[in-house]
Design a protein that fits this description.
Among the domains are: about 35-125, TruD, catalytic domain (Pseudouridine synthase); about 155-305, Pseudouridine synthase (2-Layer Sandwich). Strands 1, 2, 3, 4, 5, 6, 7, 14, 15 and 16 form a ten-stranded mixed sheet that branches. Strands 10-9-11-12 form a four-stranded antiparallel sheet. Helix 3 (about 170-180) packs across helix 4 (about 190-215). It has about 350 residues and is of the alpha+beta class. It has helices at about 55-65, 145-155, 170-180, 190-215, 245-250, 270-280, 285-290, 330-335, and strands at about 15-20, 30-35, 45-50, 75, 85-95, 110-120, 125-135, 160, 225-230, 235, 255-260, 300, 305, 305-315, 320-325, 340-344.
Length: about 350
């Protein structure tokens, strides 16, 4: 087994150029939208917070400390980048008579934009979408070439890889997962163990997706595929590919999927079952480890389509991209199809 994250293959050929990425936090702006509106009542305080150069988990600890509650009573829909300006929701289990004055919560780079209440806690996956405004510098990209590449993205979507941040710095989360499954370490902290399990699952998914990108069928259904309904976690298996399935895929109503490994029978058959077995034949440590950890077999779409994708040529070498992604999708995955990214 390769201990590092798998190679991420590009779907549309060579990148358009290099680009300088994240020269300042303002170059990577993310705004989270929930799948529902907080109803204004209930035991959970909902805070919409703009943060800069701040880790989501660190901020959750600071909120718990300020409100004098346990960290487990602070929730969020998903992790957000540290080196960015991000706006996201947090929920805190707090009775009204114990709620602090949020005007007194003062940390550099942190602004509470809205405070309300809701009857249930915020859980992972409750965000509907994230809105991105990303500025890239020092590109050597012809505008016509960029436009053509974005047209391909709109036509086919892009491979729905898990981003490198899923694996930690230098893929450390993946290495920790390997050590955990090999019995070399014991992880008691639930949040850390969850990160390592997610890294292992993501690695297996990316490996299958990379092979389908290599074969050119990441956006087309195959015999025995498991198809996911767009915008949901519902899926169904197919044995043959008929005109109806092809049309629904072309319309982005359904998507081919890849494995999120765990216990249970494989959800694919025929050609896709054989492909996934072949690709993951040398990953027995990770597969067994995920099963023994109690993860359940699931699926994830192999492709994603940015919504309302726009670009602005700010000057000869500076490009701004504006788009929405469904929660759980990675902006860096889209950028990877366009540029070789470098940072300062």
């Amino acid at each position: 087994m390769n201990n590092s994250a798998c190679t991420i293959l590009r779907a549309f050929g060579e990148p358009l150029s290099t680009a300088r990425f994240r020269q300042s936090p303002e170059d990577f702006i993310v705004k989270e939208t929930l799948a529902f509106e907080p109803d204004g009542a209930g035991e959970h305080v909902y805070l919409y917070i703009q943060k800069q150069n701040t880790n989501t988990q660190w901020l959750a600890r600071e909120l718990a400390r300020f409100a004098n509650i346990k960290l487990r009573d602070v929730s969020y829909a998903g992790l957000k980048d540290r080196n960015a300006v991000t706006s996201q929701w947090f929920s805190l289990l707090l009775h009204r008579d114990k709620e602090p004055d949020w005007d007194n919560f003062s940390l550099e780079g942190i602004d509470i934009l809205q405070a309300t209440r809701h009857r249930s806690k915020l859980r992972p996956g409750m965000a509907k979408k994230n809105h991105f405004i990303i500025t890239l510098y020092n590109t050597d990209c012809d505008e016509q070439a960029l436009l053509q590449r974005l047209q391909l993205v709109n036509q086919y979507g892009v491979p729905n890889y898990y981003g490198e941040q899923r694996f930690g710095h230098d893929a450390n989360n993946l290495e920790q997962a390997r050590a955990l499954f090999a019995g070399e370490i014991n992880i008691k902290a639930r949040n850390k163990k969850g990160l390592y399990l997610s890294a292992a699952r993501s690695h297996l998914f990316n490996k299958v997706l990379a092979e389908r990108v290599r074969r050119g069928n990441w956006h087309t259904p195959l015999r025995g595929d498991c198809m996911i309904l767009d915008g949901s976690n519902s899926f169904f298996g197919i044995e043959q590919v008929d005109d109806e399935i092809k049309a629904r895929v072309q319309e982005f109503d359904i998507h081919p999927s890849g494995p999120l490994w765990g216990k249970g029978e494989p959800l694919t058959k025929l050609d896709v079952l054989q492909l996934e077995n072949d690709v993951l034949a040398d990953e027995q440590l990770f597969k067994n480890g995920l099963v023994n950890a109690g993860m359940t077999m699931d699926r994830r779409a192999l492709r994603m389509k940015p919504v309302a994708l726009q670009y602005q040529m700010l000057d000869a070498g500076t490009i701004r991209l504006i788009f929405d992604l469904t929660s759980g999708q990675y902006a860096t995955t889209l950028l990877h199809e366009l540029f070789i990214l470098g940072s300062v």
